[in-house]
Amino acid sequence: MKFDFSEDQTMIRDMAREFSASRIAPHALQWDRDHGLPRELVSEMAELGLLGMTFPEEFGGANVDMVSYVLAVMEISRGCSSVAVMMGVNHLVCEVVYKYGSDSQKSKYLKHLASGKGIGAFCLSEPQAGSDAQNQKTRATKGGNSFKISGKKAFITNGKYADVFIVTALTSVDPKEISVFVVERDTEGLIIGGLEEKMGQRASDTVEVTLDGVMVPEENLIGGVNGFKAMLGGLNSGRIGVAALCCGISQSALDLAVEYAKEREAFGGTLADLQAIQFKLADMAVGLETSRLLTLKAAYLKDENKNFISAASMAKLYASETCNRIVSEALQIHGGNGYIQEYLIEKLYRDARVTTIYEGTTEIQKLVIARQVLKGK
After folding, report:
1. C-alpha atoms less than 13 angstroms from C-alpha of 311 in its C-beta half-sphere
2. 77-87 pLDDT tens trace
3. Of 24, 99, 212, 243, which has the highest C-beta tally within 10 A?
4. pLDDT tens string 25-38
5. What residues contact residue 261 under an 8 Å CB cut-off, 6+ apart?
6. What does the mean pLDDT of the chain come to?
7. What is the rounded average pLDDT of the residues 240-250?
8. Angstrom distance (rounded) from CA 219 to CA 246
9. Per-residue pLDDT averaged across 87-100, rounded?
10. What pTM was computed for the model?
């Protein structure tokens, strides 16, 4: 078993680390207060190849492996998880188009998104359909060579700025026949709601999307009628990215806790001298390292074209739950100062909470893992 990274993987990690430290981290608190990211940041990330990392160069990607992508996400999230979630959702949309889309869809949309010329949004959740993702109310009715889509999508990341939306909709009276469509931003009837006032990851835009009789050509159907597997396949991959994002938040929280413990004077020394604090730091470090290993294993299995479904859910489950524990302990080490918005740990505490909810809740991950175990996989 080999744990060393290749030269290319190390170079990508170091590039993302330097960019995150110089271009993202210094502005994270202000972006959180502003509830948004500067558009030029997306362009800079595109120039570095961070928006379509695992996809072929012919489609605007950087053609690197999933392990490299994971290493980059860890570093970007270390600077600001809002940036990482924007990056991750765009990658998720690219994954759906690349894996299940037609050649024309790849040429038209994947190249646009992977190169950073545009941003994608993943429209699955609805007001009544969160974990119960198949409880869809949005409908697509066929007429000639087009589909008319009507419905409402909730909690859509990148929705404010995206120009390509991947949308699920029922295409039959059968509630299990759910299909996937590409909808372009300027399509008549596509209505983008206002920004949600979120607890954390506030620099990442989240909106409600209404489809009021949106007309799309049949050629915008991804994976054929009843192609819901395209969305599920994308989610399996996306969970690896979220696990990596959690590792980045955890690393940032641990860094802050160590720095504060060394500086804060208490009981005739520093907090770092106290065994109670040392035990906390030890538990945090072990949790972070375990999260990293689970995440990298899932990425490795995907690179090897092996079944990574269970590994992805294990990584997402463990890394997100551990992230919340690590950030909580880091805030505890900061004491009262950790509760003040002037300190970055307060932001990390808010940012971490959603990680056990989006891209499949903790409870959903346990169901996925149990089903894979029962299948003997």
Report:
1. 21
2. 999 999 999 99
3. 243
4. 999 999 999 999 99
5. 270, 271, 272, 277, 281, 333
6. 96
7. 98
8. 37
9. 96
10. 0.96
List the catalytic residues: 359
The closest of 316, 271, 273 to 298, measured between CA atoms, is 316
* Number of other CB atoms surrounding residue 16 within 10 Å: 28
**H helix or E strand, kind and range, residue 35:** none
Share of the chain above pLDDT 90, in %: 92
Strand, helix or coil for residue 98? helix
Q: Write out pLDDT tens, residues 155-204.
A: 999 999 999 999 999 999 888 899 999 999 999 999 999 999 999 999 99
Q: What is the pLDDT of residues 41-73, one digit of tens each?
A: 999 999 999 999 999 999 999 999 999 999 999
DSSP string, 321-365: HHHHHHHHHHHHHHGGGGGSTTSHHHHHHHHHHGGGTTTS-HHHH
How many CA within 13 A on the CB side of residue 87?
Answer: 33
Question: Any bridge partners for residue 58, and if so which?
Answer: none
Range 229-374 has CATH code 1.20.140.10: yes
| CATH tag, 7-119 | 1.10.540.10
Q: Evaluate the CA torsion angle 329, 359, 81, 315 in order and state its sign.
A: positive
Hunting for tokens 């307060």 — which residue is that? 346
Contact 312, 240 (CB under 8 A): yes
With H, G, I as helix, E, B as strand and everything else as coil, classify residue 119.
coil
- Whether residue 258 contacts residue 345, with contact meaning beta carbons closer than 8 Å, is answered with no
Query: Which CATH class name applies to 121-222?
Result: mainly beta
Residue 248: both structure tokens together: 């980045």
Q: Where are the alpha helices (DSSP H) in the chain?
A: 7-19, 28-34, 39-47, 66-79, 81-100, 103-105, 111-114, 229-263, 275-303, 309-334, 344-353, 362-374
User: What are residue 319's phi and psi, to 5 degrees?
Assistant: -65, -40
Burial tier of 40 (Cβ tally within 10 Å: 0-12, 13-18, 19+): exposed
> Which tokens sit at 234?
């994308």
pLDDT at residue 130, rounded to an integer = 86
Same fold, 121-222 and 229-374: no
